[in-house]
Design a protein that fits this description.
Blueprint lengths: L1 E6 L2 E4 L4 E9 L6 E7 L6 E7 L5 E3 L7 E6 L4 E6 L8 E8 L7 E2 L3 E6 L1
Parallel strand pairs: 2-11
Antiparallel strand pairs: 1-3, 3-8, 4-5, 4-9, 5-6, 7-8, 9-10, 9-11
Amino acid sequence: QVQVVESGGGLVQAGDSLRLSCAASGRTFGSVAMGWFRQAPGKEREFVASIALTTGNTYYADSPKGRFTISRNNAKNTVYLQINNLKPEDTAVYYCAANSGSGRFDHWGQGTQVTVSS
């Protein structure tokens, strides 16, 4: 099993930046990708970004885009999501997930709340 724990969320003001962290543990050797998703109040969870753990290739949703950067530190089994110029519409619970080689994101964290005040 792979365990995933997010951190770094909080209450920030519009225009601020945040870096979210996602630490994976357990049977991580087979993991092929990590991804970030978010769920705003009253909305469905949406894909934000993902990164392939071996190649470092990154993928982003068409929206939001440009203000989000995903990166990884394989030595620490940690993936990051840098969010710049935060907007109130970025308010959501941000989830990290691991693709353990099954072809889908099958191990999820509990999420970290990001609240952006205007």
